[in-house]
Write a structure and sequence with these properties.
115 residues; alpha+beta; Glutaredoxin; 5-stranded mixed beta sheet
Length: 115
């Protein structure tokens, strides 16, 4: 099953720079460095429509709940990788305990049920 991690590349970060593309590249490198243990596509995408709380990301996979997060920063790369791990392992995409994702558990904006 392919899991998709979408990261907004048009959000301006807290430093006033478009940091989403850099975050996406760093997460992709980290996942690759760990041996590419997951079937995860890291996709840079334009606006996820949470512009007042940049940077935004979304997780999605067929048959799984989708998640939307905002307020992501460059320092969250390892927490994003941990979140991806949780999502890949979560049956139906339901993450029961998000503590391993660190600060990101407080950045969740919404969940969309699986089809």
């Amino acid at each position: 099953m392919t899991h998709k991690l979408f990261i907004c590349e048009t959000c301006l970060g807290t430093d006033g720079q478009k940091s989403g593309a850099d975050i996406a590249d760093a997460v992709a490198r980290l996942l690759d460095d760990r041996g590419g243990c997951h079937d995860v596509d890291v996709i840079k995408t334009p606006c996820l429509n949470i512009c007042d709380e940049p940077v935004s990301l979304a997780l999605r996979a067929k048959g799984k709940m989708a998640y939307l997060f905002s307020g992501i920063e460059r320092e969250d790369v390892h927490d994003i990788a941990a979140l991806v791990d949780l999502y890949v392992q979560a049956k139906g995409g339901v993450i029961e305990d998000a503590r391993p994702a660190g600060r990101l558990r407080f950045c969740l904006k919404g969940r969309i049920p699986a089809e």
